[in-house]
C-alpha cells in the first residue's frame, strides 16, 4: 500500500468477452488484482489464459474489438473503464505505457526510431521538436543503445531484435509513466539479450520508481523480476502470492504442475518431469466447477460441481488461492511433491482418494481435441 | 571431444525404464561430423549475379554421436545450430567437410543412395503448425514416409502400422482420419514424432521440438522423447536454445556460437565447470537461475 493507502492500480472483477463465430469467448472472467506505486506484478499463464487480454484492458485496448468489458479498473482512484476514448488516449503512453512482445511489428517500419519517440513525446507534452529530439537521444542512451546520437536516425529494420526492444522501452518511458505494462517483453529474444533487457527494466524501475505489470508464460522471468505473482488459468487468477510464496510454498495444483513440469538448472538431472495432463480448456465452453479439475490429479467428484473462489490461505499473509482441497491436505501434497514424488504417490501419502481420471499415458491424453 | 560416454546413468528413473531396451547400447559411433562448413553466398545483381561475400553459417565444426546417446547442440539464434541439423540430414549440401553415418560418408551421396540413408535418420521440426500439411489427414501424414520408401504392402497393413505409431506417441488411433487443425500444439508435435518414427530410424534429429509449445505441454513431449529413446534404442541429436531443457535431456553437449563449437563436454561437466566464457554467459543469463534462493520457505 502506498502512503495514501490507495494502490496505484486496482482491478476489480474484470470480465472481458468477445463474440466470435463459434460463440462467446470469455477471455477474462472475474479477475481482481492491485499494484502499488513502484511495485512489480507478474501475471503468469499459458496461451489462452487471458493474461494478455487482462493487461490490454487496463489500457482500454480491448474497447474497439466488439468486446464486452465489465468490472472496475481504478488507476489513482479513477475508473479507466468509464473514461472517454479521448481521456484514455491522454493517459496512454503518458501515465500508463506498454511494451509489446514483438518490437518489429510494434514499431512503424517507415519512420526513423527517433521520429517515433519524438512523436510519442509531443503527443503528450507541448515541447519543441528539437527539445523532444534531445530527449529521444537521452532516452536511447538510458536504455543502453550505443551511439544514441546516430541511432536516433536508424530505421527499425536497421536495429537488432534486442536493440529494437530497447527502442520500444525507450519510447514507453519517454513520458515517465507511473505504470508500465510489459507483455512478454523478452519472449522473442535470445537468452543473453533477455537477461540484459530484464536487468534494464529492473534498473529503470528503480530509478524512475515506476510500477510494472509483467505478463509472461515464463516462470523464470517472473522469478527474477516480480515481487507479486498472479497465476492465471482459463480466464481466472487461480493463485496470487509473493514470489517467495509461489516458488517456496505454492498452494494451487496448477502452480505445482507448472513448477514440476519445467526443467531447472539446479534440480537433479534425472528427475522425471511431471507434465500437466491434457491441454488448456476451451474459453467458449469452460468445464463446470473448478476449471482445472479435468487436468487436476487430486480432483474429487464434487470439484466438478463447485466453483472455487480466490480466498486467503490461512497462516500465509498475502497468499490467495482458488482451490477446493483442504489447506492441510494441500500442504501434505506439496511437501510430498517437492520431495520428488509423483502426484499418485503424493495423493496416497496425503490420504487422498485415488483420482478417477486414470493414470499414466491415458491421463496424458486430453479428453477432447476439438473446440 | 573426450572419451565417448555410454549413457546409462545410475540414477535412471525407474518409472520409464520398465520398457526394455530393444538394442543394447554400445560405445560405437553412429554419427561423425568432421570440419563441416556451410557458407551461404551473398549475391548482388540480377542478370550478372556476382558473389559479394558469404554468410558463414557453419564454420568448421566436428563432433561424434555415440549410438543410444542424446547429443545436445545449444546456442542462440544465428549460431548455426539449425543449419547443422539440416546439413546432417542433407536437406542442405555442405560447402566442405564430412558427415559420416554408421561409418559411411554421406556428404557426396545422391539419388536412391541418399534416400536409403534418410530412412535411417529422421527429423522433428520446431513448429508443429507449419510442419504438417493442413490438407492431409493425420493418418496419411504419418503414413507418408512408409509410402515414399514403399514399406508395407497394402493400405490396411500400413494403416495398422500408423495406428500403432499413433498409440506409441500417445495419440488416439481412432483419430486417424482427422486433420492437423483438429489437434492441439502438443498433439501435433506428437504427430510429427510419429511420422519421424515410422521408418524405425536409428537417428532422430529434433530441432527445437518444444519451443513452440505451451509450458504445461513441453514436459509431455520431452518425456515422450526420452521414453521412445529408451524403448527403441534411438540416438538423438537434440537442438535447443534452452539450457535447462538441454541439461535435462542430453548426455553430451556442444555449445555453438557464430558457426563454431566453443565448448563440448559431458552434461555434468558442462554445467558444473563451464570453461568457455560464452558458456558461462549463457548459463548466467538463464532466467530464474536464482530461483533456488527463493525455495527456502518451509513447507
- What name is given to the CATH topology of the largest domain in chain B? Rossmann fold
Strand content of chain B: 15-25%
**What name does the CATH topology of the largest domain in chain A carry?**
Rossmann fold
Distance between the termini of chain A: 42 Å
State the major sheet of chain B: 6 strands, mixed
**Sheet of most strands of chain A:** 8 strands, mixed
How would you sum up the global shape of chain A? Answer: globular
Judging by the overall fold, what is the CATH architecture of the largest domain in chain B? 3-Layer(aba) Sandwich
Number of strands of chain B: 10
**CATH superfamily name of the largest domain in chain A?**
P-loop containing nucleotide triphosphate hydrolases
> What's the CATH C level of the largest domain in chain B?
Alpha Beta
The computed structural class of chain B is: alpha/beta
Cα radius of gyration of chain B in angstroms: 20 Å
Number of strands of chain A: 12
Biggest interchain interface, per-side counts: A-B, 53 and 55 residues
**Number of structural domains of chain A:** 3
Q: Tell the overall outline of chain B.
A: globular
* Total number of helices of chain A: 14
**H/E element order of chain A:** EEEHEEHEHHHHHEHEHEEHHEEHHH
What is the total number of structural domains of chain B? Answer: 2
